[in-house]
Amino acid sequence: MLFSIRSLLSLSIILTASGGFARTHDHPHKQAVIESIDTNTANLIDISDRIWAYAETAIKENQSSEALASYAEQNGFQVTRGVAETPTAFVAEYGSGRPIIGILGEFDALPGLSQKAVPFKSVLEEGGAGHGCGHNMFGTASLGAAVAIKELIEAGELKGTIRFYGTPAEEQFFGKLWMIRAGLFDDVDVVMDWHPNAETKAHVQSSLAMVDFEVEFFGQAAH
Ligand SMILES: [Zn+2]
User: Fold this and answer.
1) pTM of the model
2) 29-64: per-residue pLDDT in tens?
3) How far is the CA of 137 from the centre of ligand 1 (A)?
4) Where are the domains of the chain?
5) Which of 65, 191, 198, 213 is a good FRET partner for 9, with 20 to 30 A between their CA atoms?
6) Which CATH number fits domain 5-192: 3.40.630.10, 3.40.50.620, 3.40.50.300, 3.40.50.1580?
7) What are phi and psi of 44, to 5 degrees?
8) First-to-last CA distance in the chain?
9) What's the CA-to-centroid distance between 110 and ligand 1, angstroms?
10) In what order do the strands lie in the sheet with 78-81?
11) What are the respective helix, strand and coil percentages of the chain, to the nearest 5?
């Protein structure tokens, strides 16, 4: 299965090198991150493959969300499921005090994009859902990065809190909006994420907030 270990490494290394955490030397931390990823690669690929196969769309990502939440729990994170009144949204946290560093992980699939695990178009189930833009990797690799940081905190190499946000319904209902409204991002110092792409690079584009509104038109109906 496709899995971008290099993207995962990039995210972890950016986190350790960002200066967000109190640090000693960059190099030992980078080496520790690389070793953490190497150690956990089989587990992470397994989770990514499972989420690919579940191919669950917005708000219905029960198995996908649970695969990530339980892995976080096995790795010593304190997990709160069903946050923001959304059954598949969760927060997993490790450490204490500041800084509080957030990492986002998405895991929902897209309707109508059922696809076999091959690098060309081949429908697995006619009309079924599929991972069109790699959210099976998105959530998994983000959590892998969070675990690598957690291990450094556990070893006393970094101070602070690492918080993984399991953010559902990215493709259809903007799941993060409800998590923001529930105040889950109020105390966080910085939030990072990544997305599968054709190349490995750091992306520092700005993002505009989205304001949703309804418009009602009156008059003669036309096409
Ligand atoms: Zn996407």
Assistant:
1) 0.83
2) 899 999 999 999 999 999 999 999 999 999 999 999
3) 10
4) 5-192
5) 65
6) 3.40.630.10
7) -70, -40
8) 46
9) 9
10) 78-81, 90-95, 161-167, 100-106, 190-192
11) 40, 15, 50
